[in-house]
Amino acid sequence: MGPRVSDLLSGLAPSATLAVDAAAKALKAAGEPVIGYGAGEPDFPTPEHIVEAAARACYDPVNYKYTPTAGLNELREAVADKTRRDSGLEITPSQVLITNGGKHAVATAFMTLVNPGDEVLIPAPYWTTYPESIYLAGGTPVSVPTREDRGFRVSVEDLEAARTPRTRLLVFVSPSNPSGAVVAPHDVAAIGRWAAEHDIWVLCDEIYEHLVYGDAEHVSLPVVTPELGDHWLVVNGVAKTYAMTGWRVGWMIGAPDVIGAAVNYQSQTTSNISNISQRAAVAALNGGLDAVVSMREAFDRRRHAMTTMLNAIDGVHCVEPEGAFYCYPNVSGLLGRPLGGRVATTSAQLATNLLETIKIAVVPGEAFGTPGFFRLSYALGDHDLVEGLTRLAELVSAG
Predict the structure, then answer these.
(1) What is the largest CA-CA distance in the chain?
(2) Percent of the chain scored above 70 by pLDDT?
(3) Which of 192, 292, 306, 350 pairs as cysteine with 344 (C-beta 3.0–4.6 A)?
């Protein structure tokens, strides 16, 4: 009897972030006092006007039927308007494909642009989904190391060291998940010019565009690098900006022929996404940015608190993030040390030990291509943030 599962899916790794979140929720449901730092979602409710728009849509029979694969015309127009308003990128609604969340947009982008044998550059640490989606498209993910002492910001020199004749695409993410790195505008432009010089496409993941702090500034790479022509795709969504992770609305923006191919692919896989969620997204994009302003203020306070508490722990060092809502501390100083009667030799093993002993859930750096680190989300309540890190500090202090 042959294998029960295809070779393709047998070689696919599960999402580490979702696995950690699921484990934490299962323990909490069983009555354990677990504090989860794993989930990448705001701990705020979706704004009321968006929920009300969805409720109204439930009673409109027009939403009970299939709609265009590429998305509702109203939503594609709203995305085009929002993109022009927020980043200065001039596009038409026909250049927009509405997808089932940002992750779906990322996977579709790779399916659209990548051929077997193509290499795709991914600055590390990277979001755990990128290499697996590239693998599913038949491409070869190439991790590009960045330096902790430079705040994990990727540079042209880093990228050039990884480039080969097979390099097809660069994944560019700023602000970054998991590091919170924000690349300075002049460096973004330099990276775009480098890509144009070597005929490399760029996939720009802008899902955290509005979550930047202090003097950091987000700019859209296609805007600051016109030399790139149309050799780019932008992916984005409502999840982070409007606290809508569960609504599953993302989008992909690109040249008409590329979007046309992506629409064709989606027509054979998912068709259109939920009309109710699309109506909610129209209300979100047309309703301004008040929600993200208040969230950003809370996240800014929490990033300072988390960074300070982490750096006060012996054996831990954390670069202060400039964007998104994650800290990415170096915990290699905790490896090989007895903590709560256990000794971990990897950050993955240490993460397991912390979940079992002091009931805090973190995502180990192995999931992001950089062992020896943890990703901790500060998109959780202030009390839980402090309580969990206090448990960690006390564990390390006790030895």
Answers:
(1) 63
(2) 100
(3) 350
The set of residues, in sequence order, having a beta carbon less than 8 Å from that of 70 and lying 6+ positions away, is: 76, 96, 97, 98, 259, 263, 266, 272
Q: What average pLDDT score do residues 220-239 get? A: 97
Q: How confident is the model at residue 31 (pLDDT cuts 50, 70, 90)?
A: confident
Tell me the domain boundaries of the chain: 7-45+291-398, 48-287
27-31, 147-151, 240-244, 245-249: segment of lowest average pLDDT: 27-31
Residue with tokens 């790139």: 228
25 pLDDT band (50/70/90 cuts)? confident
226-235 average pLDDT score = 97
Q: Which residue has the tokens 């291509």?
A: 369
Count CB-CB contacts under 10 A for residue 178: 29
Q: What is the pTM of this model?
A: 0.95
Query: What is the DSSP secondary-structure string of 90-122?
Result: ---GGGEEEESSHHHHHHHHHHHH--TT-EEEE
Tell which residue, 152, 186, 154, has the closest CA to residue 170: 154
**What CATH number has the domain spanning 48-287?**
3.40.640.10
Please name which of 102, 144, 139 lies closest in space to residue 122, comparing C-alpha atoms.
144
* Peptide linkage before 222 cis (omega within 30 of 0): no
- Computed over every residue of the chain, the mean pLDDT equals 95
Contact call for residues 361 and 304 (beta carbons, < 8 A): no
- How far is Cα 378 from Cα 382, in angstroms, rounded to an integer? 8
Answer for the pair 122, 168: CB distance below 8 angstroms, yes or no: no
Map tokens 């950091």 to a residue: 216
Query: Which pLDDT tens digit goes with each residue over 110-126?
Result: 999 999 999 999 999 99
